[in-house]
Write the structure tokens for this entry.
Amino acid sequence: MLSTLDFNISSPSSFRFLERFGKLANANSKQVCLARYLIELPLIEYRMLKHSPSNQAASALYLAMKILPRYFPSHHLKDGEHQ
């Protein structure tokens, strides 16, 4: 089986998960860029190894989307809705 794969096996990184999660969440480029930065920060912290790459990517994207929310002009809101 490994020869069929040309011994090309690896575990997915948090950046691969971030690409997928960013598309699913419809995140803009600034949010994804901030999430990439947030993923890079704990690379030097040994204690962060206990968290899975998918969990790190999801957490970074969530935080980035909270820090940089999408802008919706008030004229697009329906009557009675608040920003």
